[in-house]
Every structure is written in C-alpha cells, then in structure tokens.
Amino acid sequence: MQTLWALATILALQAEALDLLSPPPLLEQLPVGKLPVRRRNVYNYPIVRRTPRTIENLSQPQKRECYPKARYFMSGDKLRDYLNAAVPSQIEKMLMCAEMNLAGLLGTVLGTVTDLDLLSLLDITSSLDILGGGGLGGVLGGVSSSKSSKPPQSLLSEATGDSNLLLQGQGILNSITPNGGQDTDDNASRGSGLLQPLSAVGNKVGKLIESTKGMLDSVVPDGTKDGLLGGLGNIDLNDLLIGLEVQKATVENMKLTMTGDGVLIQATTTAIVAGKGLLGAVLSILGFQVNSDVTLKIGVSTNNAQCINLRVQDKDIRVKEVNLLLVKAVTDALPVSLPLDDIVSELLTVDMNENIKESKSCDIAFSDFNECKNSAATGLFTYHIKSFRTSAQGLSVLYCAFFKEAVPMPGSPLPAIPKNANVSITLSRTMVRAVVTYSAKQSSVQMNNLDAQFARIVYSSQPDNKVQNTYWVNVTKDGESFATGQTNIIVSYTCKILKGKLKTDIKIESFEHRMAPPDAIDEAQELMSAVMKKFLSNIIEFFNQVNIPLGVTSSSLNNAEVKLIKSNDLQAAN
Question: Do 399 and 386 touch, CB atoms closer than 8 A?
Fold first, then answer.
C-alpha cells in the first residue's frame, strides 16, 4: 500500500510540473508582449554605454585643458565699418546670382497668378474688379480687361491652393447687391432695412472710381493716361517676359545690431528686373522693380583651433512690393512705377527663400575678413582658441597659450580692454614671466673657476617704457658655495609688432651689483657683469621670438607699439 501511495504522489507532482508549462486560461487573455521585463545585471555593475568614434571625431585634434592667456579684441565700431563696407555688395551679388534666379522666379509667379493680362495684375484695379467695373481699363479709358476670364478670387485660389482666400470686397458686394450670393427667400427674410438703395450703391461706386483716378494721377504723368491704358490693356505679358534678367540690385539702406551671439543685419533692397522692354508712342514699359527686405544673422565661427571668421548663420528675404516700371517716352522723364497685386510679392518671397537656402554659389562669404594661415609655424608660443563672443562693445577672442608646446601655464585674469581702442592684443603676465624665466635659465655663466646660476627674479613696469628688475644668482667656486649675488637694474625698452612677432630693443639706464658676503664682490665683479650682459641679450633674443595670436588679418596691429602695463601684462592697441 505504501508503494502505491508513493507512486500516486510522484504522478501528481509530475502532472503539476507539466501544468506550469501551460499558461492558465486567465493569462491567455492578457496581451502578449505588453508586460515590461527587467533584465537583472548579475554582478550589479553599472552599465557603460560607449559612443562609437566616428571618422569625424577621429579627425579632430585632442584638446588639452587650458586657460585664457591672450586676447584679441576688435571694437564694435571697427566691426561695423567692415560690415558696412562688405555686406551691401554681397547682398547685391546674392540678388543677381544665377542660382537665385530672381528674374525666372518673377516670370513664373506672374504667369501663375494671371492669364498674361498685365492690367489685371495692377493692385489699383482690384477693388473695381470686385464691383464689376471691368478693371482699370473699364473705368478710366474704356480699355477692357476681358482677357482675364477668371475672377480675382479664382486666380488667388489657383496661385495659393487655398479656395478660402477670397477678396474682402466680395463680402461688401454680397451686402449691397439684390441677391448677394443667397436665395431670394433668404434676402427677403433679412428685411428691406438691411438692403441699401440702388442710388446709394451707385454713389459708393462713383466715389471708389474717383479715388482710383486720383491714385493713377499721382503716379502717371499728365497727358499719358490714355496711352497707359491703351498700352497696358492690350499687352501680352509673354512679350514683356522675353529675356527677363536682373539688371541691377541696390541696397538702399542697412541697419546693424550687435548681439551676444552675432550681428543682426536688416537691409532694404531694390532690384530692377527687365528684358527687351516694350516701346510705345507715349510710354515705354521698362520691366519690374522688386522692393524687398533682407535679414542676415552673422555669427563668428572657426574651422580650426587658431582662426576665426564671420559666417552667415541665417538669411531671410521678404518681398514688400513688385512694381511695373514705366517711363515717359517723349520727355524721357524719370521712371514711375505702378504696384502689382500683393499675391505676387507673397509668392515671390516663398520662392526666393527656397532658392537661397538651396544655393551654394549665392552664399555670402567674408573671405577677406581673415586669412586663416598657420600663425604658429614659428615662435615661442602655440595658440588655441578658447572662446569667442560678440557684444555691443565688439568682438573678443580668447586664446590658450602653450610655451614651446609644453603643458599649459597656470591661469591669471586678463586686464581690461584698453579704452577707446579699435583693435587690441593682450598677452598675459604668465606669458611674460615664462619668457623672462626661460631667458634667465639660459644665462648661466662660468669663468675664473666661478659658476653663476639664476636663483630668483622679480620685475615691475615703470612709467616711460621702463622696467625695474632685480635678480639673485648663486655663485659657486670649484663646486662649492661661494656667494650670493644680487643685481638691481633699470632698463628702457621699445617694442612693436612686426609681421606677427614682437620686435624688442633694450637699453640699460642704471644698475648695481651686490654680493653676500660683501667681500666677494671683488672676485665676482666680472662674473656679475657677464651674467647681466648675457641675461639682457637673451631677453632681447627670446622676446623677439614671441609670436602673437592671429586675431583678424583685416584689422591687424602691424607696427603697433607694445607696452608692459602695471599688471605686468603686455598690451598693444590702436
């Protein structure tokens, strides 16, 4: 019996194990794959995701930690002077650029919004077209604009793809006509008080006609109205669009605003687009005048570690008005212009912005702003750009400096930018100390069994381009400590920037040697004089090897005077 119970227990356990492999009916009703599964890290180590190194990352130099040691500064006025001279011609070149294709875009837009009836494009005819006056020709000269078989709202819908863009005058028309686009029963239910008498409607039309006559009189010379209407009403726009090209582009005025992240430029421009033109007995049609606003956002960029340049970060064109240009043939008077419908400007704005974004040859470039050459080819220092920014004050570029390509030097605050400076360059006191210290280490002298090694040096700027310097040397004799020498010296200097380096000369004004113990001066006098001579010679040699950061070549400081200021920083300005 015990054997049977044992066998029954084993079979029951096996049956339960098999049931675990088949989900119960309730679980089968749950959505499969919806339950979150958390994968457990066996050793609970943090998971580190490594970003693969791309070719672009591999090509970039590894940047060393550094502190600003030098600064180039260009004043806001100096930067404005450059942009005011360079940008207008660049904008004019952009508007006339082949890839911009302003003439082609204008021709396409004109062909889109009209049935090539020039008169129907004039903005001053739109109100009369709505009231059924037959356009400008029908009101002011009997010239029919019947060539355009489509109503204005149809043209607008066709050009924009939006059937809801109806001219505002249609609502006025509906309110003053007998039917107003509604059923007769609806009009009757609105009551006769909502309908204006026919005489009142006629008065409104008459006033609108007179207003339009006045507008035309203000832009068209006396005695040429009949010729204008007779010519415009019968011109096929295809004839005027033959050989259309941008003949001239002009920046009328320009405004610059310095910001924390660049320069914002807003320019008003005029472009003359014409082809063969159409000659008439009274008036000649020259072509079209496109008035637009161009907005540029100019920022500072760098393509390497040593050179900055200006770059257009964003540009936008907004066409304000497209005018038909006319000239009086008999008197050869200055051209007058008639505005075209706003839809022409709106469509042309969209097309022009698409073209300038896709075009490469129409880009605005400032290649003459800075020649990005290798400024660290020779010299004691290697420079890397730390940061740059623009502000109302001007353009400032901070550089890290590495002495003889060694590790970065300790940082120190840079002095303030010189007042009223158009351009300035500052080299920090840590750079000055690096050159002085290096010169001192190279100034050891051995003579008459005596050996002098520099131990310490201090210096400070004095008025009138003078420097007070005190240094101490340890003197040994036959390898044994002999004395400690001290020299106090005042020198005057001249220093300029020539071809990217300092040009320095030094003259001794006064000096004094001391020894401890004092009785060692007799034996070490010649040695101390040799040390001073070699030290000053090294100062001149190594400071003449100091190269300055590239800055901006179009506003360099060549031949500018360099001074050691009170903070012991070097500074040049003009």
Answer: yes
